[in-house]
Amino acid sequence: MVETRLTLARIVSPHSVAVIGASDDVGKFGGRVIHYLIKHGFPGRLVPINPNRASIRGLPAFPSIGAAGQVDVAILAVPVAHLLRQVEECAAAGVGACIVITGKLADAGPEGAALEAQILAVARNAGMRLVGPNCLGIFNMTDRAMLSSSLVLEAAEVKAGGIGMVSQSGALMGTLVSIGLHHGAGFSRCISVGNQADLELCDFLEYLVEDPATRVIALYIEGLKDPARFGPLLRRARAAGKPVLCVKAGRSAAGAQAARSHTASLAGSYAAFAALCRAEGAVLCEDPAVMVQAADALDRLPRLPAPGMGLAVVASSGGSTVTTADMLPAAGLRLAEMGEATRAEMRRWMPESHVHLPLDTGSFDDGTSEAGLAACVRAFLADPDIGAVVVPMTTQPAMAARAALFPGLCREGGRPVLFVMTAAEVGNAARDALRQADFPFYDRVSDALGVLRALEAEAEGRDRAALPPPARPPGIGHPPRLPAGALTEAEAKALAAAYGIPVTRGILARSVEEAILAAEAIGYPVVLKGVSRAVVHKSDLGLVKLNLPNAAALRAAYAALPDIRLEGVLVQEMARGEAELILGARWEPGFGPMVLVGAGGVLVELLRDVQLMPAPLRPEDAAAMLRRLALWPVLDGVRGRPALDVRAAVEALVRLSWLAADLGPRLIEMDLNPLLLRAAGRGAVAVDARATIGGESP
C-alpha cells in the first residue's frame, strides 16, 4: 500500500466533503446525507456530486468528483453497479478517503466479495482509505461532521459528549445513539465500519484512545480482523484512563473446532475474547442498550470507589425498594451493610424499626421530605460500604423537584447515584429536569442494575491494572523437549511436573507382571490405566480401573481391559481429595495462551463451570478465577465442611499458566483433569493429564 493521503483524524474531521449521489430527495441515501450535513452545521466545504443538477440544497453541484477540486472525504451512496467506477474516479481525483454506504458486496456473496476486492485494490494503489462498504458512515458530534445517512440524525440536536463508539452494524449504532440521546448522553465520534474492507475496528479504536474529545469507548463487535491488535489497544485505553465497553455478537461457541481436550471445547473463541477483555480491564456487556447507558454513566457519573462495595436502595415506595433489592443477587450485586454513623443519621428522620436497607422514605416521621431524603443520601455516599445509591422513583407529587436533588448530591458525594424513572410518560418532567442538569437517568430498574454491574467490572479492571506484572514462580526453567502430536498421560504429567505441578506417582508397564511389580513399588491400593494416544476419554472405554487393593485384583483388572491396541498400562497411586477441579491450557489463535480452571471430573463439559484468562497469571488472578466459580463455596468450606487447599490450586494454576506462556503456539491444548484438591494445608494432585503439541521443539 502506498503512503496514505489522510490521517484517521482528518477522515473523521474532514475539511471538505463530497456527496456522490447527492439529491434534494431526503428519501434517498444521498439526499439524507447532504441534508444531515447541512442540518447539523458542517463547518467545512460541502460538495454535491450529481451530473444532472446544477445545484442541490442551494449549493453548486458538480458533474463528477474530478471537477470538484480538492476533497478530503467522499461519501458514496450509489447503486452497486456504479460503485467501482466512482471509486476509480475518486482515486484519480486525489480524494483522501471514501465512506462507502453502498452494500451488497462481501456481505452478499462471492460476486460481491470480488467487487469489494477490486475496490480495495484501487484505493490502496492510490493511498486512498475506505470506510465500509456496507456502513452508515461517521457521526462526529464534536466537530459537527455528520457523514452519514442514519435516521437518528433526524434528532433536533445530536449532543456532543465523551462517548466514542465503533460499530460493525450501522443500523444498531444509530439505535444506540438514539437511546443515548434519550437519556441525555453525549457522543464524541461514532464510526460504522461495515465490512471493514480497509479501515477496521481496531484502527478506529486506536484513534479514539488518542482522541482528546473521547473519554469512554463503546464497541459493537461481530468479528475482529486482527485479534492480536485488540489486547494491546485495550491496555493503552486503560493507561489513558478511558474505559472500554464491548458487546460481542456470536457468543455461542459455533466457531470452536472439535478437539481432543475438554479445554478446547470449553475455551472457544468467544470465551477467549471475554477472558481477554477481563484481563485488560474492558467491560463486556450482553445488552447493547445497557452498554451505551453504562458508557454514559462512566462519562458523566463518578466512578465506583472500589469493586465489591454494597448498594443503598432508597425511594418513597416500599414496593419499589423491595423489588429492586430482590433483583440485586441475580445481577451479582448486594445490599450494603450500613455503618453506625449512617444509621444514626437515619434515626433522626424515622423510627428505629425502619432504619435498614432498602430505605422507604415513606417511613419518615414527617413524611418524605427533601431535607430528610438529602440527609440520608449524603450519609449513604459517605458510608465505607456503600459504593452507589439506586433511586427507583414511582409516581408521586413533585417528581421533577425531587429528581433535581440528585445531581448535586451525587457530585457532592463523589459516588454514583443511579436515578430510575419508572413512571413512563408521567415522569417526563423529572427526565427533563435531569437532562437540564446534565445527569443520567434510567427507565427500568433492570437497566440501572446492568449499568451498576458494568461499573463494578470497570472498578475490577482498575484494581487489576494496579497489580504488578506476573512473576515467574521459583523452580521452573524451560519446557522439556516434546514430540509433536498427542502425548500419553505419562508424558503430559512429566510436562506438568517439570513446572512444579504435583502429579500422582505412576509407572509404565508392558505386561501384567511388570504392572504387579510397579504396584508393589508404589504401594496398594493402585489405579490401572490403559495407555493409548488415540483415546481421549479412557474411562468411557473401560480403560481405568480404580482402587485395586492387591495383586489378585490388579491381575483381574488387567485381564478385563478391552481388546484394543495399547502402548502399555500405567500403574499409579490411588489418590483421594475433597473436590475435583479441571486445569487447562491452550493456544487460542489471535489471542495467545489461555488457561482455564473449573469444576472437574467426568461431568466437566456438562457443568461448564469454568473461568478462562490469558497467560501468564498472577496469584491474585488465579484466586479471582476460583472465586468466580459456582463451585467456590465448596472450596471455601460450605455448611461446616472444612475449607480446601485453595492456595495449592492457585499455585498449580499459576505454574500451568507459565507452561502455556512458554510453549506458546506449540501447546495446542492441555488438561489436568481432575486435579484433586484436599483440605487446607494438604495440597493438591493431578491424577490425569492429556496434551497435544504442535510442531517441533526448538
- Report the total helices: 24
CATH topology descriptor of the largest domain: Rossmann fold
Structural class: alpha/beta
**Order of strands side by side in the largest beta sheet?**
9-8-11-10-12-13-14
Helix share, percent: 25-40%
Strand content: 15-25%
For the CA atoms, what is the radius of gyration? 31 Å
List unreliable stretches of 5+ residues: 253-267
Outline the fold blueprint.
Layout: H1 8-12, E1 16-20, H2 29-39, E2 45-49, E3 55-56, E4 59-60, E5 73-76, H3 80-93, E6 97-100, H4 110-126, E7 129-131, E8 138-140, E9 145-147, E10 160-167, H5 170-182, E11 187-192, H6 201-210, E12 216-221, H7 227-239, E13 244-248, H8 262-266, H9 269-279, E14 283-285, H10 288-300, E15 310-315, H11 318-327, H12 340-347, E16 359-360, H13 370-382, E17 386-393, H14 399-403, H15 405-413, E18 417-421, H16 428-436, H17 445-465, E19 485-486, H18 489-498, E20 506-509, H19 512-522, E21 526-531, E22 544-548, H20 551-559, E23 568-573, E24 579-588, E25 592-599, H21 604-607, E26 610-614, H22 619-627, H23 632-636, H24 646-663, E27 667-677, E28 684-686, E29 689-693
Parallel strand pairs: 1-2, 1-5, 5-6, 6-7, 10-11, 10-12, 12-13, 13-14, 15-16, 15-17, 17-18
Antiparallel strand pairs: 3-4, 8-9, 8-11, 19-29, 20-23, 21-22, 21-23, 24-25, 24-27, 25-26, 27-28, 27-29
Helix pairs in contact: 3-4, 5-10, 6-7, 10-17, 12-13, 13-15, 19-20, 22-24
